[in-house]
Amino acid sequence: MSTTGNATSEEVSSNAWEFIHMSEQEEDLIRRMYKLVGDRWNLIAGRIPGRKAEEIERFWIMRHTHSDAFSVTSNQSKAKHS
Hints:
By secondary structure, this protein is mainly α. About 55% of the residues lie in helices and about 0% in strands. It has helices at about 25-35, 40-45, 55-65, 65-80. The longest helix is centred in the middle third of the chain and has 14 residues, at about 25-35. Mean pLDDT is about 75; it is low at about 1-15 and about 70-80. One of its GO terms (molecular function) is DNA binding. It is found in: Nucleus. Keywords: Developmental protein, DNA-binding, Nucleus, Transcription, Transcription regulation. Its main location: nucleus.
């Protein structure tokens, strides 16, 4: 890797990450799979068509790093379906 200040494709700042939108079904499946298999992102991604392991991992990290945002979103979603 170079130390010239140019970031390689392997170096990704979490500040550059955009929020990944998942359906309720995808979120539910990710939570359930995580409880079963832990952070085996490839295995989890294999159960969600069109999603990559890196995408699932990034979603999980962002969702659990910003847990307050998840609570608000989750509560709003529950209110809609009540």
